[in-house]
Amino acid sequence: MSEDSVCTKEHCLYCFDVLNSYLTGEKIKKPTFPNKKYPLFVTWHLIIRGEEYLRGCIGNFKAMEVHQGLKRYALISSLQDSRFEPVTKKEFPKLTCAVSLLHDFEEVDDIYDWEVGVHGIWIEFEDIDGEELTATFLPEVAEEQNWSKKKTIDSALRKGGYSGPKITEEYRQTIKLTRYRSDKKSVSYEDYLQYKETKNE
């Protein structure tokens, strides 16, 4: 990745700005980072008594201009992740935000040809009723969960909606797996407050 395209904290601060604008009506300052095209994900965590809890994570594998992509997914991930209720104004000061810009997508012949903690995986598979399904895990997930490659693949299958009673090795070998890398940065609400103070000086 070229130096001016690497994910920076400014990407995350912009997501905070977008969500803050939605919750309070404050205007958003136009981003100054390069508007290159990337597949991207926005992840929100809630900090409670020092512990971090996932609060929303959604993105898109279709490369899009990051200004528009972050503006869109900052809200979708915080307000429309079906696993959670929408983020509230009360929760806002307890949030952290992470942005992942995805790159180096490679379809592999061997579904185990990727490295935990280095690659994310994107799988495409057919459910027992013939429905075509997909799922992904960003590179940090398997490492954080202490999963093996097989456990990560199985978890991705279940996440994507596989409804079979048991996942066999024979079935695993039918999936299509693409590995990718991610450049990720994250910021806290405290970082965002400092940014706002600097911005308003």
Describe the structure.
This protein is α+β, with helices and mostly antiparallel strands and 201 residues long. The chain has two domains: 3-103 and 183-200, Hypothetical protein ph0010, domain 1 (Glycoprotein, Type 4 Pilin), CATH 3.30.700.20; 104-180, 2-Layer Sandwich (Dna Ligase, domain 1), CATH 3.30.1490.150. The chain is 32% helix and 33% strand. It is built from six helices and six strands, in the order αββαβββαααβα. The chain has helices at 9-24, 66-79, 139-145, 149-160, 169-172, 189-200; strands at residues 37-48, 51-65, 95-107, 120-126, 132-137, 176-188. β4 and β5 (132-137) form a beta hairpin. α1 (9-24) crosses α2 (66-79). It is elongated and about 60 Å long. The two termini are 33 Å apart. The relative contact order is 0.19. The model has no long low-confidence stretch (mean pLDDT 93). This is DUF51 family protein. Pfam families: AMMECR1. InterPro entries: AMMECR1, AMMECR1_dom_sf, AMMECR1_domain, AMMECR1_N.
